[in-house]
Amino acid sequence: MRNLFILAGGTQPSPRWLDAFPDADLLTWDVAVSAQARPEVLWLSSRSKGWHELLRVARQQFADTPCVVLTNFPDAREGMAAFGAGARGYCHGWAAPAQLQRVREVVKGGGFWLGTEVMSHLMGAINKVNEPIEELPGELSGREAEVAREVAVGRSNKEIAALLGITERTVKAHLGAIFAKLGVRDRLQLALRLTRKKNEPER
Questions:
Q1: Which CATH entry fits the domain spanning 119-197: 3.40.718.10, 3.30.450.20, 1.20.970.10, 1.10.10.10?
Q2: In terms of DSSP bridges, do strands 130-132 and 195-197 run parallel, antiparallel, or are they unpaired?
């Protein structure tokens, strides 16, 4: 199976997308359906007219295929609508090729790629009803615990780097170790792991 980009409503994939997947199939919707294509990942553009309905139909036509919505103007509400319609990924269509390749691997592996806007929206929602737990998992080092706490309250890598006096690359390295040690996929799962509902006693 190969990557498939559905050309709908006159849209075209960005050059960066083509750089990331030079051997991808570029098909119109009608051709893809009539050919009974079986892509490994289905990429749709939010610039397509009626893309919400197209996504729902795609989820029926390609039931076992994860769908990713590409957008030129990331927006939390649009992203939430995409996930509500069955997408497993939402990202900028002009993202770097390496990031687009990472999106493919995440959704193929059963995960979700939320994008910065949707992630920030959900992290904000969590922090309205949750508060950090006092005692963090013992397997984290002191610095990892500091980074984990800041992620759990919704701070970005840039903010954490400035707060702790380290580089963003170091923050990313700590996050990779944290995710591996705690068995979580992303910042959202980490926040859920390290917070509890307000006024709820710790277990």
A1: 1.10.10.10
A2: antiparallel
